[in-house]
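Hey, I was hoping to borrow your eyes for a little while. There's a protein on my desk that I can't quite get my head around. The fold is given in discrete form, as structure tokens running alongside the sequence. I'd be grateful if you could look everything over and explain what you see. Here's the protein in full, and shout if anything looks odd to you:
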Amino acid sequence: MAVGDDFADETDRQRWPVIDEMTGEPVADPDGQVIAELEATDYLELQSSMTLEQRAAGERAWRFGHVIVDEAQDLTPMQWRMVSRRARGHSMTIVGDLAQRSAGRVDAWADLLPDELGDVARHDLQINYRSPEEIGLVANGVLAAISADLTAPRAIRASGHDVVAHLVDEGDVAGRAAELAAARATTDDAGRVAVLAVEGVGALTKAVHDAADEHALRRITVCTPVEAKGLEFDAVIVVGPAAIVEADPDLAMLYVAVTRSTDRLDFVHATPLPSVLADPTLEIVAR
């Protein structure tokens, strides 16, 4: 049988039905006809004419031998159902960080993963390969405020750069953040720089364009913590951390913001820092 062939009779449909592993029921197409599970050889015959993506998209019965799920903390119950139907035997590698969940707070993976997945082998990351220990001290304070049950990873290196909070007047926030971004983007070892904020992104973008030359601008990204999720930068300037906490009291977006950097982290603020950032190692600079 090849993809797209009709069944010879109804008996074939009953012989090779696709079973929904979440419900135990046969899967039907929009016309109510049961979809058949195709054999591996049926797909192999199409290798010369179709890509893996095309074959998977074009055949609703397609299942993968193993599925890798990244940013798993953000999947909804319906998305878990969809992924489970595509993973033969529920064979999956699930990667995520509950502290960075953007759709409400969840304290344990058991509260998030569907029961139908059964027992899972869990491995907590103990080592922080991205951020240096100076940033880790600040980030781990935020993590502890999110949940005492979450494991704080240990940084494997130090950068030699203290985390600095720049206290400025309200009207100077955008200008100071832009100055810092331009400075970070023009050093000898400059890499990618991010300016993260939940409000005034347009004003920040304009200020950065005014403060940085064309070469530096190619290295600077101005965006929200949500947009920066999953990314990393060599230097990060977090603007208005109190506003980030106000927008997300569960602290996930603040945690995302302070864990994006591989080297340097700065805060620029006109209002007091949130209490979760009251780390004794944090250097405060008033201007």
